Amino acid sequence: MSIFGFDPRVERHLIADEGEVIIDEVRKHWAATVGPMLEMAAAIPVLLLLAWLPSGAYWLPLFLALFLVLHGMWRMLAVQMDRFVVTNMRVFRVHGILSQRIATMPIARILDISVYKPLIGRVFGYGHFIFESAAQDQGLREIRFVGSPNERGATIQRVIQRSGLRGPARAARPAPTDFDPNETAEMPWWRAG
């Protein structure tokens, strides 16, 4: 669902001729809109100030209420236009309203993904991704308000595994069992005593 018809249209940024496909398109969790909604709701008490102010100062609460509503709507639109995309080749983030910013990280450069879930995020089902990559400075470090972060993290790990960048998981080698404590006479010197 897009607000006022605004949509970042992430499919425009795919490298289709190389076979890139979207695995997961992540919208911000609804908890990211709580701050902007509270800001817009704050316009109501500001308008109630009209009853106590002198008649010549009516413009001040009206201007302040209008500002709170417009700024809250702008922030809501910014949340709507912020997308995190996992493809079979890379992860990228598209955000911005009038001008768009795109940050990309190839799957091969992802070294580690940390998931931070604050207490309120654990209750409502969101968390924040923190990417560690081989690069010192990167444009894609933290993705905030990711819904179902455990499942999304597993999806990224599956994409990394399927890309063949990391070898298959191996079972630990069992310890050699050729040592018999009763045969001390033929025991090598490094195993003795």
Folded structure, characterized:
- Strand 6 and strand 7 form a beta hairpin.
- The longest helix has 22 residues, at 59-80.
- The protein has 193 residues and is an alpha+beta fold.
- It folds into two domains: 12-28 and 83-165, Roll (PH-domain like); 29-81.
- Helix 1 (34-41) packs antiparallel against helix 3.
- It has five helices and seven strands; from the N terminus they run E-H-H-H-E-E-E-E-H-E-E-H.
- The model has no long low-confidence stretch (mean pLDDT 85).
- Helix content is 29%, strand content 23%.
- It has a four-stranded antiparallel β-sheet.
- It holds the Pfam family bPH_2.
- Residues 166-176 have a biased composition (Low complexity).
- Residues 83-146 form the YdbS-like PH domain.
- The chain crosses the membrane at residues 30-52, 58-74.
- Keywords: Membrane, Transmembrane, Transmembrane helix.
